[in-house]
Amino acid sequence: MPNGVVALFETDITSRVNDLWVLFERLLGHHPEALAPFAHLSFHGAVRYETAALATDLVRLASELEPITIQSSGLGIFTGPAPVLYISIVRTPELSAFHEKVWHLADKHAIETNPYYHPAQWVPHITLGHSGLQEGDLVTLVKAVHEQSFSWPISITSLSFTDDTPTQPHQLQRIIDLKGPI
Questions:
Q1: What are residue 176's DSSP bridge partners?
Q2: Does the residue 182 lie in any domain?
Q3: How many domains does one find in the chain?
Q4: What letter does residue 158 receive in the DSSP assignment?
Q5: How wide is the angle at C-alpha 88 spanned by C-alphas 160 and 135, nearest 5°?
Q6: What is the pLDDT of residues 74-84, one digit of tens each?
Q7: Is residue 157 part of a domain?
Q8: Which pick of 4, 78, 98, 136 has the fewest CB atoms within 10 Å?
Q9: Chain centroid offset of residue 26 CA
Q10: How many CB atoms lie within 10 A of CB 38?
Q11: pLDDT, tens digit, 9 for 90 and up, residues 108-155
Q12: What's phi and psi for 6, nearest 5 deg?
């Protein structure tokens, strides 16, 4: 599922994630996150979106949602044939309510929703390594950063989404600032 509704991060968090990707690429000889070239937190995933309608509804929702601060808490691994290394995010009631609003709105405009992001299953995280991981890479990466703190306050101040364009898959379409009620 290459497309999604996401939150991008302020410069400090984006820089931290990018620094990790640079370190990982140096250690592995390849970039471990092959799906998205930018740091993000996903709220919804789908094969495609009805882009114009999603953009309109996200602008409306962003005018109702206030920015929130979330907290990361360490590293995690989704196991399986294609393991994922990630920074875990604490799932608070405030974050869950925010996610549920975004998920339901995005799902109305989705084509082939990824059930992994459904509110009942969602595990908030920032992906560090996904389909670019090869056998043995997880050990190398965790060894390299196991002493670092991944307890970061993270501001969510905007929403964005990706969708396929005629020339490239999963491109950022809009960045919409959260304004909250006036």
A1: 159
A2: no
A3: 1
A4: E
A5: 100
A6: 999 999 888 89
A7: yes
A8: 136
A9: 23
A10: 14
A11: 999 999 999 999 999 999 999 887 788 888 999 999 999 999 999 999
A12: -135, 165
DSSP-derived secondary structure letter, 116? G
> Of 130, 131, 145, whose CA–CA distance to 27 is shortest?
145
Asked if 78 and 84 touch (Cβ cutoff 8 Å), the reply is: yes
pLDDT at 158 over 70: yes
Handedness of CA 20, 74, 66, 118 (dihedral sign): positive
Return phi, psi of residue 24, to 5°: -65, -40
CATH number at residue 105: 3.90.1140.10
Q: For residue 155, how many other CB atoms are within 10 A of its CB?
A: 15
For residue 143, what are the domain limits?
Answer: 3-177
Give the separation between CA 70 and CA 92, rounded to whole angstroms.
8
Q: What is the pLDDT of residues 23-62, one digit of tens each?
A: 998 999 877 765 667 899 999 999 999 999 999 999 999 9
Q: Where are the beta strands (DSSP E) in the chain?
A: 3-7, 41-49, 68-78, 84-89, 110-113, 125-129, 153-156, 158-163, 171-177
